[in-house]
């Protein structure tokens, strides 16, 4: 059994427009973002995730795969943007004229 003094509680999250998954985990204090994503098995449920392409963050703050986690962190895997936000605002503003 794991020594609880050497573990932290974290979550790994991914969302699509029609579904989301948040996986709570208890991991070793030395666990990195990449290790947590792999341990969460979220890649099995969402095979479109590519850790070399998708941006990753902890509570909306971008981070790298080798970032070491802290207790209560939520690892977030972001989907690529479909549309440029600036262009979308510009189109909406022109449509409202």
Description:
- The chain is α+β, with helices and mostly antiparallel strands and 97 residues long.
- It has a single domain, classed as RnfH-like (Ubiquitin-like (UB roll)), CATH 3.10.20.
- The chain is built from three helices and five strands.
- It has a five-stranded mixed sheet with strand order 2-1-5-3-4, with helices on one face.
- The N and C termini lie far apart (65 Å).
Helix percent band: 10-25%
What class, by secondary structure content?
alpha+beta
Task: Give the biggest sheet.
Answer: 5 strands, mixed
What share of residues are in beta strands? 25-35%
Could you name the CATH class?
A: Alpha Beta
Q: What is the string of SSEs from the N terminus onward?
A: EEHHEEEH
What would you give as the CATH superfamily? Answer: RnfH-like
Q: Choose one word for the global shape.
A: elongated
Topology, number of strands? 5
Catalogue the unreliable spans: none
In CATH, the topology is named: Ubiquitin-like (UB roll)
Specify the CATH architecture: Roll
Termini separation comes to: 65 Å
Tell me the number of helical segments per DSSP (H or I, 4 or more residues long): 3
